[in-house]
């Protein structure tokens, strides 16, 4: 008897706090993902860091042994100053004369700032530049997000919504399956266009990069991670890169267009019916009910598309707000039952 009561209480508790428990599992899973990633990076990178430290210590000691006129303190001071200048994008290698703050380089910098890529290879040197960067980003980043959102929504209509609707009417295939197939094909196409092909191009243009490093740069840049360990056009030889300004301008255009395409792919995948149902598991009850109503409205609109193919007339579909209000009114009715597919078809006709 006690066991039955306990089981019944547990079942009621699970049903009442279903979304909260799912959200708690999501938080725990994400924290575990962070911890596992940190552990793997630590295991992989620690030996390389140790070997590099030993190599640098040996090279430094070898230099001091071969140049007895240089003291360890003076060498330490020189290295610190060189590293500080390098952090500001100024190199002392090979009589480098490239400028980091001409117009094209500044345009590349502003694009990385506003898209939050932030390679970190070029930073403001003056206090005035740092202050202006704060105010420029404070206004520019929200504007960039708004701009990218507007552009992505317009492209979504051409690249995702219209093709899916067209093939849905043409092939009479389930819209959810068709959307999943379309998202898969779009992801593969964008991977080739934005990652594989540019990586092959960078292999030929950047003499010190292999394919993995080029692919790594493309992925890190287009996902706005922007670690800054690989930046194209940072060669110190004019002969190796005679058109550095044009090259950097092309890179800027590639990064902006690539970011838009990546956002289109992400938006397409996030709007899949399967993803919407998965997100509902972690919503609060009132949000989940609202999203369920929206899903029902979308399903009814999909059914109206099928009816349009079967008749010459154009069915009149109520607005989204009217349908949502109708669904709420019916859900409050004591004798309300979900309509079957045939009943819904008769109602739409």
What would the keywords be for this entry?
mainly alpha, extended, 349 residues, disordered C terminus
Fold and architecture overview:
By secondary structure, this protein is mainly alpha-helical. Helices cover 75% and strands 0% of the residues. The protein is extended, with a radius of gyration of 29 Å.
The gist of it:
The protein has helices at about 1-15, 20-65, 70-85, 105-115, 125-170, 175-205, 210-220, 245-270, 275-280, 285-310, 320-330, 340-349. With about 350 residues, it is mainly alpha-helical.
What is the topological layout?
Layout: H1 2-16, H2 18-66, H3 72-87, H4 103-114, H5 127-171, H6 175-205, H7 211-222, H8 244-270, H9 273-280, H10 285-310, H11 320-332, H12 341-348
> Residue-averaged pLDDT, rounded?
79
**Low-confidence parts, pLDDT < 50 over ≥5 residues?**
305-321, 332-349
Structural class: mainly alpha
Instruction: Bin the helical content.
Output: over 70%
